[in-house]
Specification:
Strand order of the largest sheet: 2-1-6-7-8-5
Helix content: under 10%
Number of helices: 2
Distance between the termini: 38 Å
Number of strands: 26
Largest sheet: 6 strands, antiparallel
Radius of gyration: 22 Å
Length: 394
């Protein structure tokens, strides 16, 4: 059967055995994207899972890199490792204590290997998924509007959504009501306004089946030079990124949450050209539509602002954050640079952009970002983690 560790999936076609019926087993998994493979239980002595993966095929290196990154990601310390099709005893939340390239079993010729020790930290029966909030108005702020909502996105498939004032012996709790629901590429997201709840700085608790966890979360992609996410064989050609220090090489950096997609092509020594493109998801057409950003070449701007560097600062289940440095390549302010902070939360249809110590946004850079910038001045301060049920019982 197909299994996922957070958003990293082993296709069913790569599994020849589904003997994952012991929560206290050591596991060896071998598979190839679109090819043959196997899953073998090594022993039943350890309370942990030993995960060994051999990838073969044209995308083996990038898929192995993706799995290695998500297992080591500081923003995703605990994640579901579970079966897609049907519940298995080993389905639970795990954390990776060791990630290496040394397989426990002999790897297949030409395979790229990833190994890890997974330690169970709990299940849906012992833990809630929790989204902590800390609404605040950043200083400096931004010039794109003056809204005061602090929208928090929760997967619409989540059950028993509640808010509490603490993750340890809470004294307040309530059942919140979403203010809107949006349809992202891979599912619906309910939006709650943390600034309008009955509890200040509420913590949202909910239960969600393992498999859909991650489907509507924000994420980062490396295009590896491919224009489309799917190749001519409808196989995913991009690679997910979970390491803020990931080297994008010749590929574009893509930040997206199923509603907004920001594509940034940073300049290199081989190609000094840099581009910033944006797309929004059209649920009715089930497709992505380009956003018409103003351009210097079209005469919309007096200064040609281009992305010069992207510093990813956070990749987590509820938020992707980065500092984007722009360079004025031509026009009125040629030679200037400006760094802006940006973040994309789950369920948000716009990028939350704030000014930095560089001062106010230059007018043309403000105009360039305005079509994709959020108008609210409040940052909901979302952070997702697991919350032990025993800590928040009545």
């Amino acid at each position: 059967m197909t299994r996922r560790y957070y958003r990293s999936e082993v296709p069913e076609s790569s599994l020849a055995s589904n003997r994952l019926d012991a929560a206290r087993s050591r596991l060896s998994r071998q598979g190839a994207l679109g090819g043959s493979g196997r899953v073998d239980r090594v022993s039943g002595e350890s309370p942990d899972i030993r995960l060994d993966v051999d990838y073969r095929g044209r995308y083996a290196e990038r898929i192995a890199r993706e799995l290695r990154e998500v297992l080591s990601a500081p923003g995703i310390e605990k994640a579901p490792f579970a079966t897609v099709e049907a519940k298995q005893d080993a389905d639970a939340y795990y954390t990776a204590e060791l990630v290496d390239d040394e397989p426990a079993m002999v790897q297949a010729p030409g395979a790229i290997s990833v190994g890890a020790n997974l330690v169970e930290v709990g299940t849906r029966n012992t833990h809630w998924v929790g989204v902590d909030t800390a609404p605040s108005q950043p200083d400096p702020g931004h010039p794109f509007g003056n809204g005061t909502d602090a929208l928090v996105g929760i997967p619409a498939d989540a059950r028993r959504v509640q808010i509490v004032d603490s993750t340890s012996e809470p004294t307040q709790r309530d059942q919140p009501i979403p203010v809107a629901t949006v349809t992202a590429e891979h599912g619906d997201v309910d939006l709650y306004d943390a600034s309008a709840e009955s509890i200040d700085e509420p913590i949202y608790l909910f239960d969600l089946e393992y498999d859909p966890q991650g489907d509507v979360d924000p994420g980062v992609w490396d295009t590896y030079g491919n224009a489309s996410i799917l190749d001519s064989d409808d196989v995913v050609a991009w690679g997910r990124v979970f390491d803020t220090g990931h080297d994008f090489g010749d590929g574009e950096l893509v930040i997206e949450n199923g509603l907004l997609r920001l594509r940034i092509d940073e300049p290199t020594n081989a190609d000094a050209t840099a581009t910033l493109e944006a797309e929004t998801y059209d649920a009715g057409a089930d497709s992505w539509t380009a956003v018409d950003l103003p351009a210097y070449q079209d005469g919309d701007l007096d200064t040609d602002w281009q992305p010069a560097d992207v510093d990813l600062t956070r990749i987590s289940q509820a938020r992707v954050a980065a500092q984007i440095e722009f360079s004025a390549e031509a026009g009125t302010n040629a030679g200037d640079t400006y760094a802006a902070d940006a973040q994309l939360d789950r369920g948000r249809e716009a990028l939350f952009v704030t000014e930095t110590s560089d001062g106010e946004l230059p007018p043309d850079l403000e105009a360039l970002l305005a079509p994709i910038a959020a108008t609210s001045v409040v940052d909901p301060g979302v952070e997702q983690a697991l919350v032990a049920r025993e800590e928040v019982r009545r």
